[in-house]
Write a structure and sequence with these properties.
Elements lengths: L16 E2 L2 E2 L3 E5 L4 H16 L3 E6 L4 H7 L2 E4 L12 H22 L7 E5 L4 H9 L3 E5 L8 H6 L10 H11 L4 H6 L4 E4 L16 E4 L22 E5 L8 H11 L5 E5 L1 H7 L8 E4 L4 H7 L2 E4 L3 H9 L4 E3 L4 H12 L3 E3 L7 H13 L1 H17 L1 H15 L6
Parallel strand pairs: 3-4, 3-6, 4-5, 6-7, 7-8, 8-9, 10-11, 10-13, 11-12, 13-14, 14-15
Antiparallel strand pairs: 1-2
Length: about 400
């Protein structure tokens, strides 16, 4: 992974591009309707709009208000409602492929008379580079998770080759139809330029990431007032925050284990458990416990001493950006890879779900809070995140791409 320096644009309006100045470009963002994929991009949208660009954002209606709050223009597509996401990433990718095909047919006519100058696309939003190839415009991939490394296909999907994932042939046919150079391999494993929302240190096996212009900008964090606000209670007690994210959170027994684990510690406990568990409840709550369907995560993390998390990349990076150690209890393969990195880098503890009983949870949280080596590792990564540049660095990459190749597809 190559970390690049940053330059600021000279500003101005219109579509003129002179030297390093990129003025008033139309940038299209393509994403899948998943919180962990949309949230990291919103600060970049805001930064690009602040610099004078127009940003169209292709996503479902569930995220339209968030896109507008960031300054973007939602371009909506519809997909059938889905139940709980599958923990099997092979199944998940197959579902996402179907989503892409549905979105593609809806989005192409919406952009027919408003083609962008550049496309930004999430790692699973293949409709973005497909359309970019047809339009002949440059692309930059947005990576909320690890860049392809030696062993990723096996660790993420449990197969030997990417071609073994169901739906691969359908994607290959779309790649051929839209004329994407390099085929499926270039589309999925080796895009020409990537913005990664984490620093290089956290990349799994970074020495095996080859052949790409990648920029590890760290988490791009911006205003999240649309999520509401939260304040720590008075009294100064340590706060432990518990969340399994937005996809795999139907785990009432896990939350009960957390309740039993932290009862009597003298800490304040905040749990974000999802709408279904919040409605049903997890039984009687001791004093000093809060249980919510969702919370303003940045507010809670800012007051937390330890974060008990599923280990999603976005949540982990937000914790480390705020200097909070974690106890990772992963729910699926991608999160297990993150939990492995957390343990190897000494940023917290990896607690497999089957071992996350109340005694183990309590011990892990107390260890994460008190271990000075963990505190030092978190502080070091926090410094790296601050130096990586976040949304500003990401916007610099976008503008550099516009200047270098205003009308060249990959």
């Amino acid at each position: 992974m190559i970390l690049r320096g940053r330059t600021r644009p000279h500003g101005g309006a219109g579509a003129d591009m002179q030297g390093d100045a990129v003025r008033g470009a139309h940038i299209a963002v393509f994403n899948v309707p998943m919180h962990g994929h949309v949230l990291p991009t919103l600060a970049v949208v805001g930064e690009l709009v602040e610099r004078g660009h127009r940003v169209s954002y292709a996503v479902t209606a569930d995220f339209a208000d968030q896109v507008r709050a960031a300054g973007g223009e939602p371009v909506l597509y519809e997909v059938p409602p889905s139940g709980e996401a599958s923990e099997d990433m092979t199944h998940m990718v197959t579902e996402v492929l179907g989503l892409n095909m549905l979105a593609l047919s809806q989005l192409e006519p919406q952009f027919a008379h408003d083609r962008p100058d550049l496309v930004l696309y999430d790692v699973y939003a293949w409709m973005g580079p497909l359309l970019a190839a047809r339009w002949g415009v440059p692309v930059v991939q947005l990576a909320p998770t690890h860049l392809p490394y030696e062993g990723l296909v096996q660790e993420f999907f449990g197969v030997d080759e990417i071609s073994q994932i169901p739906g691969h042939s359908e994607l290959a046919a779309a790649v051929a139809e839209f004329g994407v150079p390099g085929g499926v391999h270039a589309l999925t494993l080796a895009p020409p330029r990537t913005i990664a929302f984490f620093p290089r240190t956290f990349q799994r096996r970074p020495e095996t990431v080859r052949g790409r212009d990648a920029h590890g900008v760290g988490p791009a964090i911006s205003d999240r007032s649309f999520q509401g606000s939260w304040q720590a209670p008075k009294g100064g007690r340590p706060v432990v925050y518990v969340s399994l994210g937005s996809q795999f959170n139907r785990r009432p027994e896990f939350y009960r284990s957390c309740r039993d684990a932290f009862d009597g510690m003298g800490w304040h406990v905040v749990m974000s458990v999802g709408a279904e568990v919040a409605e049903r409840g997890i039984g009687p709550l001791p004093q000093g416990f809060e249980v919510h369907a969702s919370v303003p995560q940045l507010d809670v993390l800012a007051a937390s001493s330890v974060f008990v998390t599923h280990g999603g990349m976005g949540s982990a990076m937000e914790a480390f950006a705020l200097g909070v150690p974690v106890v990772a209890v992963p729910q699926m393969a991608e999160q297990r890879v993150n939990a492995t990195c957390i343990a190897e880098l000494g940023l917290g503890l990896y607690l497999p779900p089957e071992q996350a009983d109340s005694a183990s949870l309590r011990e892990a949280v107390l260890t994460a809070a008190d271990d000075q080596s963990i505190a030092a590792a978190v502080a070091a990564l926090r410094r790296e995140i601050m130096e990586a540049g976040g949304a500003s660095a990401a916007a610099d990459v976008v503008e550099k791409t516009l200047t270098e190749a205003p009308s060249v597809s990959f």
